[in-house]
Structure to design on (1601 residues):
């Protein structure tokens, strides 16, 4: 027997036992099963029974409200009791099973014992029989039985032990139940008490609600009364407002009439003005026409004149050519030179004109600038006290102006030449304008020379920089033997001298000694010269060596450069004895003793001076002034009006660059035009007036914002006498280490004395200890990262020095110099370690040394040298940036996500650092993915990357996790994420469908399945559908619904359904792309507007032609309203409303857009919501409760391509409308198709309904590329319906769908005759009567009709060969075709016989009845036949004919409707008169009248039986003596005695009238019901003749039901 592993397998039971936890109850150890539960149960009981005193007071405590703790204890107590009962039941069941198995075991043991006994007997018998084979077999069986018996005994013992254990456990449980019986009873009593308290509370609550309801009702009544009062007030107010409005309306109408009057007057005035304007325009048009005519004539004259001139020139050229050829010359060359000469002359004239224009333009600009400068000067209240100076810009504009006027100043040329000689690197502008001609190459100007010098150490040129003041002790102290720089200069000079030693020359054993070149003369002495004049001398140089030698001009001494100029052309290698010439030019003037002052090397802070001597070697004195080269000073007495500054800012420099570039571009023009006159570039080369004004307003004089290192002494100006000299001191005060150079000039009042120039240079040397790197650039650093660098300190001193390194106090927590103190040996270097660890408090600590915007740190470091006042400083520069990576957002909520989908969200990763950083998302869960590059990469400085976080749950639960992003420096940045995983009860076989490329208006279908795989609630076998950690979805039918986006080309069928467990539902998804309705409407409106414009244009063209054709002498102008072409938005809106999908414009626009379609790609996501239950079980108005979280998503990829086959006929419409076709007829339509694809296509056609009205008559199998084919379709309706089918033309590139529509129209004919029976009445024989009736065509088609009489049909002859119907059948007494005329003509005729009935109109017909003899049974059938096939109406025609004018109708028929064959027709009156008997022998005609009296058994009185007879008089056109017919009945009293009542019994009838004789009968008292009553009387008629009728009355009594 297999034992169960647990008794409690239910999840709820396990959860309800907190004391047992995960342990299982096993049958093998019953004590283990009960002890844990009992312990926990006892604890629960203790909690519930902790207050026994309070529990006894049941009557008081049960009514009180229990606390939360008591309710929890009671709940656990009830739960434990229920569990105890359940365990008792299970244990009892298990004991019963065990006892049953024990009984079965006893029975098997008894059976085995019996079998052993029988086998023992058989063994004994076989042993006696000595049957060894049987004996062995029986012994084996005995052993087997013995083994089985032993096994059964063991099993019995086990079962017995198990039963005993179970009974012991059962006893324990019963003991516990007995102990807790009181608790159970108390719980039941408490439950009853709670129920009673709930009832009491419900009653109280009901009473409160009733009171509340009464209060609400009172409030409602109060609000109603208040609302009535308010309504009355509103009514009165409204009435008052209406009266005010009416009164105001009257006033407004009065003012409106006045306003309208003024508006009409204004419109009339405008109308008159427009008429006048139109008249002026017409006059102008006529004048323009005349001018055009005259211009054409003039143009023709000029053309003729030009042609004649061309002919003359051509003739002249031919003559010259012939003359040259006759002389033997080259005619072509001569003509070419002549043409070239003419072109050059034209270019020369154009060049001169352009030059004049450019000259005027430049002069106007300069005059404008001068005027602006003069205007600005006048506005200044206090003019500057400094003397006016000519700046470089003034000289430039002066030179340009003089050059344009054709004059140049000699002094300017000399000045510029001197400047070129003294300044090896002049400015760009000077290099352009200092030559003798403007035709120099401006393209050779170097832009590098325009760059302003920059300091070696940034910041020293700023205004905030303060120069270091050197103490007097440092100035006086100077190393013995000169500074190190002096020694270096001396060493370099000695090396140059040693390298320039001339080697010895030995030729033929003779060594050359002496000078290599001899000069003739050796000394040039200029004496008795005049200042300002030029003197020239030649020198001859002779090679005095033994070999080939070279010579070059080294230069002139500095003191002679201003006076002597050497012209020497190097001759190259010179043989021995050869000579060359040198030209020396001397121009005496005032001179300086030196033109270069070299101060040498001085330490920063020292001050020294040099003396320069100005010597006047002439005999006249003059006034002089020493200035900087950049300053300008006019030595004249008066000051010029315009003053220009010599200091150019950076913006001024850019302006002058524009001027120079424009000049260079003009001068290098390839056309050879004037560099100052190019009209085509006039607008592009104009300078901005604002920039020119800015340059003109820069009035800054000598730069004074920074201290000059080389300056002039106190003596800067004064008088110099003839043959005298003046000494001027030049002071050098170095401030910045490095080379310093300053240019000076000396200006004189005497105009014949040119300006002298000289330079002063010096080298500023720093203190002995210096740092090679004045700025230690640590580049870009991150916070909390250590950066180190080594700083090397050098010394020039010959003694060891003590150094102390100091960091500014603001940055001592971030920067450290190690060691802080050290000793540097003589003329050596010392290394210091720099440690930089920026903290996040650096911006606050650094203060002014840190720029918050640029994040640049410039920290000054100081090196203090012992016994030295000025410290050595250097700067530590670094860009400090953070290493933070910012992730946005920091919290991500994915919401609810099914296990079949993935949710993607974007996060932004921003690098706040100025350095690129590598990053990576590490430790990602299996259900999270980050793209691109799996969340790894490098982010650039200040860059923001967009990353996609993709979450796809693997099971239904609540997810909470973190995304960790680590940088390359192991910094972590976290993002918190949460989501809820959902396991829907349904799933899709495909979650993504990729449709193939579908042609426009084609259809592609794909299939998928909705699967319900939820079969059981066992969570061990499979995961249960649930939302997060909620309860699992129950097993059962589940419904779904696809929510297709509106206006999408997607169709899902079925979109709603129910799937049973374990089943699946097939779903078809169709993709049919179409063009948007709005786009088609816009195209249709565009086409419609285009057609309208075309029509208007044609109309206007026609009107214009008619107007120009009128050639009247007086032009009359009429004001006509011209239609406008522009459609207003209101008109477009009306067009949108008028256009429909079936309009021609709409379909034409649709076809046009389809042909030009380029293709597109769409992606749709269709949600599928899920709900539990079957859609069939819901009510009509009750929707299913779809959960928004149990939603599946179907992704559709929909590529759309242009159609390969298009319709070219019928404006490209794919809808073939056959229109209205009569039923039974056929309509034909032709459709032309074209293959616009680049390949041939095989065609297939869908099958049309074989029983439908549409038929394809000529299907085709192939359509080549570019080919067109015509399809023929027919429509044959069989009934009156609106038919529609689709014909699919299928190819491998798509499907073209043609929609076939047509309306089968039945012939809707209505007849004015009711009942389809037309009775013509009584007519005299051989007379006729006509009756009109109408047939109306109710259909929309014109109908062709035919009128057909049955008596004239082809089947009439066959019918007449048969027996009469009254002989074969007694039921039918009449035939359709009755009595006919004896003359062979038809009795009835109809007019018209055939024709066409217009739709909606009635057609009138006339039927004529013309009998030729007397008969009561004239009849015929009139058939209305439509379209020669269909019989629309059948009208039965009846009529009767009499020989006389009276007739009687009524009574029962006594004869047949077929005439006797013995009747002899009479065609003439003579025969009739011969056949007519005498009056007294006239035969009486019988009339049978049968009356049935219905008698009922009830007491209700029975009405009498009634019948009627009609007496009539026929209207005739023949003359007759009597115009009325009289009638009378005989034996009236006798008839009354028999119960008959006749009214009237006699009377008269007018022509064309009838009179009714009413007959009623009531059985008399002596009437025998078994025998019918039969009486007769005579009815006499008197008209043109007398007729007697015998009326026979037969009366019956019939019993009623």
């Amino acid at each position: 027997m297999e034992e169960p592993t647990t008794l409690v397998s239910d999840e709820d039971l396990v959860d309800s036992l907190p004391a047992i936890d995960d342990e299982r109850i096993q049958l093998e150890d019953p004590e283990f099963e009960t002890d844990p539960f009992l312990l926990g149960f006892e604890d629960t009981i203790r909690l519930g029974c902790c207050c026994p005193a309070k529990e006894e007071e049941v009557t008081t405590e049960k009514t009180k409200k229990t606390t939360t703790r008591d309710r929890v204890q009671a709940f656990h107590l009830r739960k434990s009791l229920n569990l105890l009962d359940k365990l008792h039941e299970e244990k009892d069941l298990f004991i019963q099973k065990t006892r049953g198995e024990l009984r079965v075991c006893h029975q098997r043991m008894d059976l085995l014992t019996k079998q052993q006994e029988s086998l023992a007997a058989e063994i004994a018998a076989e042993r006696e029989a000595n049957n060894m084979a049987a004996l062995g077999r029986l012994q084996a069986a005995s052993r087997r039985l013995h083994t089985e018996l032993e096994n059964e005994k063991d099993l019995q013992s086990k079962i017995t032990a198990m039963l005993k254990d179970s009974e012991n456990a059962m006893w324990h449980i019963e003991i516990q139940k007995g102990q807790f019986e009181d608790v159970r009873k108390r719980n039941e009593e408490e439950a009853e008490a709670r129920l009673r308290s709930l009832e009491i509370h419900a009653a109280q609550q009901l009473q409160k609600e009733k009171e509340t309801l009464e209060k609400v009702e009172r409030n409602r009544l109060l609000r109603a009364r208040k609302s009535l009062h308010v309504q009355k007030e509103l009514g009165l107010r409204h009435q008052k407002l209406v009266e005010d409005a009416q009164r105001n309306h009257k006033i407004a109408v009065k003012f409106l009439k006045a306003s309208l009057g003024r508006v009409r007057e204004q419109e009339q005035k405008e109308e008159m003005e427009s008429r006048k304007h139109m008249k002026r325009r017409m006059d102008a048009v006529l004048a323009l026409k005349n001018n055009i005519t005259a211009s054409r004539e003039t143009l023709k004259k000029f053309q003729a004149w030009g042609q004649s001139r061309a002919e003359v020139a051509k003739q002249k050229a031919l003559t010259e050519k012939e003359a040259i050829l006759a002389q033997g010359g080259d005619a072509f060359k001569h003509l070419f030179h002549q043409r070239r000469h003419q072109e050059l002359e034209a270019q020369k004239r154009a060049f001169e004109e352009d030059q004049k224009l450019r000259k005027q333009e430049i002069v106007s600009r300069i005059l404008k600038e001068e005027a602006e400068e003069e205007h600005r000067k006048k506005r200044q209240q206090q003019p500057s006290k400094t003397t006016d100076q000519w700046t470089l810009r003034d000289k430039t504009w002066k030179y340009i102006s003089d050059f344009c006027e054709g004059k140049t100043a000699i002094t300017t040329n000399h000045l510029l030449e001197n400047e070129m000689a003294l300044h090896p690197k002049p400015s760009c502008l000077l290099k352009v304008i200092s030559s003798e001609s403007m035709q120099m190459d401006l393209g050779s100007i170097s832009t590098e020379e325009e760059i302003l010098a920059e300091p070696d150490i940034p910041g020293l040129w700023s205004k905030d920089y303060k120069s270091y003041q050197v103490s007097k002790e440092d100035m006086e102290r100077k190393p013995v033997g000169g500074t190190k720089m002096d020694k270096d200069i001396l060493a370099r000079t000695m090396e140059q001298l040693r390298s320039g030693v001339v080697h010895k020359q030995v030729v033929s054993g003779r060594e050359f000694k002496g000078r290599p070149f001899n000069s003739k003369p050796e000394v040039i002495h200029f004496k008795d010269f005049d200042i300002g004049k030029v003197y020239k001398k030649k020198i001859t140089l002779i090679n005095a060596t033994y070999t080939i030698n070279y010579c070059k001009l080294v230069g002139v001494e500095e003191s002679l450069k201003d006076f002597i100029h050497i012209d020497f052309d190097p001759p190259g290698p010179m043989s021995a004895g050869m000579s060359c010439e040198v030209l020396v030019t001397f121009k005496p003037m005032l001179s300086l003793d030196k033109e270069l002052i070299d101060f040498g090397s001085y330490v920063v802070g020292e001050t020294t001076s040099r003396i320069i001597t100005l010597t006047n070697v002439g005999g006249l004195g003059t006034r002089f002034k020493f200035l900087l080269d950049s300053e300008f000073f006019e030595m004249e007495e008066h000051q010029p009006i315009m003053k220009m500054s010599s200091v150019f800012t950076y913006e001024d420099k850019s302006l002058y660059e524009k001027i120079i570039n424009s000049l260079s571009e003009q001068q290098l023009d390839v056309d050879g035009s004037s560099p100052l006159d190019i009209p085509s570039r006039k607008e592009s080369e104009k300078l901005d007036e604002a920039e020119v004004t800015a340059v003109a307003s820069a009035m800054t004089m000598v730069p004074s914002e920074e201290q000059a290192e080389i300056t002039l002494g106190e003596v800067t100006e004064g008088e110099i006498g003839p043959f005298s000299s003046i000494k001027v001191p030049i002071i050098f005060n170095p401030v910045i280490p490095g080379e310093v150079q300053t240019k000076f000039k000396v200006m004189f009042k005497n105009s014949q004395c040119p300006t002298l120039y000289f330079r002063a240079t010096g080298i500023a040397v720093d203190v002995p200890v210096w740092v090679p790197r004045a700025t230690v650039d640590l580049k870009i650093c991150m916070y909390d990262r250590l950066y180190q660098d080594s700083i090397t300190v050098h010394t020039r001193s010959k003694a060891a020095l003590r150094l102390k390194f100091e960091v500014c106090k603001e940055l001592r927590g971030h920067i450290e110099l190690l060691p802080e103190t050290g000793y540097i040996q003589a003329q050596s270097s010392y290394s210091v370690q720099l440690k930089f660890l920026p903290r996040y408090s650096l911006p606050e600590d650094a203060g002014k040394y840190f720029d918050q915007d640029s994040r640049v740190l410039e920290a000054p470091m100081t090196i203090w040298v012992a016994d030295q006042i000025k410290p050595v400083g250097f700067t530590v520069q670094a860009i400090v940036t953070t290493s933070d990576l910012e992730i946005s957002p920091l919290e991500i909520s994915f919401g609810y996500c099914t296990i079949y989908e993935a949710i993607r969200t974007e996060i932004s990763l921003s690098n706040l650092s100025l350095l690129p950083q590598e990053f990576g998302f590490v430790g990602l869960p299996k259900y999270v993915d980050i793209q691109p590059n799996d969340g790894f990469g490098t982010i650039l400085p200040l860059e923001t990357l967009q990353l996609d976080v993709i979450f796809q749950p693997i099971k239904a639960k609540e997810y909470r996790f973190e995304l960790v992003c680590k940088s390359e420096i192991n910094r972590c940045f976290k993002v918190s994420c949460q989501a809820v995983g959902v396991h829907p009860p349904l799933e899709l076989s495909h979650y993504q469908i990729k449709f193939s490329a579908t042609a426009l208006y084609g259809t592609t279908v794909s299939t998928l399945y909705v699967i319900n795989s939820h079969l059981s609630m066992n969570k061990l076998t499979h995961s249960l559908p649930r939302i997060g950690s909620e309860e699992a979805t129950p097993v059962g039918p589940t419904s779904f619904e696809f929510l297709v986006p509106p206006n999408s080309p997607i169709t899902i069928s079925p979109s709603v359904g129910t799937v049973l467990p374990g089943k699946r539902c097939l779903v078809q998804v169709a993709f049919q792309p179409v063009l948007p309705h709005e786009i088609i409407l816009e195209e249709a409106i565009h086409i419609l507007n285009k057609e309208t414009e075309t029509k208007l244009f044609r109309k206007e063209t026609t009107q214009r032609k008619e107007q120009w054709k009128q050639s009247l002498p007086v032009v009359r102008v009429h004001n006509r309203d011209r239609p406008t072409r522009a459609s207003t938005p209101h008109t477009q809106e009306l067009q949108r409303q008028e256009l429909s999908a079936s309009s021609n414009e709409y379909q034409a626009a649709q076809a046009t857009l389809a042909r030009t379609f380029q293709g597109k790609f769409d992606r749709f996501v269709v949600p599928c919501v899920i709900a539990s239950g079957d859609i069939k079980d819901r009510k009509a108005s009750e929707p299913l409760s779809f959960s928004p979280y149990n939603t599946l998503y179907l992704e559709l990829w929909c590529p759309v391509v242009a159609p390969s086959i298009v319709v070219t006929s019928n404006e490209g419409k794919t809808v073939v409308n056959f229109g209205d076709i009569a039923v039974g007829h056929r309509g034909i339509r032709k459709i032309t198709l074209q293959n616009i694809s680049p390949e041939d296509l095989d065609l297939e056609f869908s099958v049309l309904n074989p029983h439908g009205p549409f038929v394809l008559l000529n299907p085709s199998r192939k359509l080549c590329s570019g080919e067109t084919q015509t399809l023929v379709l027919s429509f044959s309706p069989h009934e009156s319906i609106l038919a529609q089918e689709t014909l699919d033309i299928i190819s491998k590139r798509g499907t073209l769908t043609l929609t076939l529509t047509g309306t089968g129209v039945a012939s809707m004919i209505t007849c004015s005759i009711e009942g389809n029976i037309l009775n013509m009445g009584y007519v005299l024989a051989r007379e006729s009567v006509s009756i009109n009736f109408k047939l109306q065509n109710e259909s929309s088609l014109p109908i062709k009709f035919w009128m057909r009489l049955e008596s004239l049909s082809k089947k009439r002859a066959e019918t007449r060969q048969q027996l009469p119907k009254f002989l074969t059948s007694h039921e039918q007494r009449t035939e359709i075709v009755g009595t006919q005329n004896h003359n062979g003509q038809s009795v009835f005729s109809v007019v018209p016989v055939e024709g066409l009935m217009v739709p909606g109109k009635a057609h009138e017909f006339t039927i004529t009845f013309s009998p030729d003899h007397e008969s009561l049974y004239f009849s015929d059938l009139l058939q209305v036949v439509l379209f020669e096939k269909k019989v629309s109406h059948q009208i039965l025609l009846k009529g009767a004919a009499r020989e006389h004018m009276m007739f009687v109708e009524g009574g029962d028929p006594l004869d047949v409707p077929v005439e006797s064959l013995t009747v002899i027709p009479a065609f003439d009156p003579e025969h009739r008169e011969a056949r007519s008997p005498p009056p007294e022998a006239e035969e009486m005609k019988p009339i049978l009248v049968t009356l049935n009296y219905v008698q009922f058994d009830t007491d209700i009185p029975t009405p009498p039986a009634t019948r009627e007879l009609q007496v009539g008089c026929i209207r005739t056109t023949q003359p007759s003596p009597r115009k009325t017919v009289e009638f009378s009945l005989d034996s009236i009293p006798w008839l009354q005695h028999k119960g008959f009542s006749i009214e009237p019994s006699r009377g008269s009838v007018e022509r064309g009238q009838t009179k009714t004789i009413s007959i009623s009968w009531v059985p008399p008292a002596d009437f025998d019901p078994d025998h019918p009553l039969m009486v007769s009387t005579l009815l006499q008629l008197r008209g043109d003749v007398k007729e007697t009728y015998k009326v026979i009355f037969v009366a019956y009594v019939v019993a009623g039901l």
Notes: The first strand starts at residue 506 and ends at 507. DSSP finds 23 helices and 72 strands in the chain.
